[in-house]
Amino acid sequence: PPARLIAAAAQAVRDLGRDSAENQKKFVEAGAPGALVALLSRDSSEGVGAAAAGRGALSADARVAVLEAIRVLAFENPDGRDALGAAGACQAVTATFLRHGPQKSGESVQWQVLSAAAQAVSYLAYSHDDNRRRFGAELASRMRLMERIQMPSNVAAAVQHASRMLALHNQEAQQPRKEKAALRGQGAQQMGKGEAGGS
What we know:
10 helices
């Protein structure tokens, strides 16, 4: 399907799922996690230039919309995190982040995509050790590398938050309130008005 239709469909999942546990449940039951992961995985395999060349990869707007829909289905939704993790969301988001994350200052970067990917990592990893393991060591290493790279402040904040979520591992028993407060704080800033650095 055209990228604009993919973006519109993903934005509908994002908007209808936001602040609605009932709609989140319906989307999960209808197979939205698998569909979103399939789109993101295909996009990662086809490469950044494929959309411009007409080969079917996602546009930047569609890529952001899919990542935001994944984030919303994971938000305060353990079943959503389970379903997304089982469908391969962690691997697909990791591939997107690694492909778009800069390794040095001055590289051309789609900051909206990077921010959306980092936010998806945070919500998929929240209180879910299996998903944290699925993200793997390479993602954590890239995030640490990026701490030395100049980025827009909102993107840097999203990456730092995702890095902290990955580093928590099995610490929920010791600090569940702190972790949940961190996610709620990010959600209040980024979900109420849309994605950080997004459209």
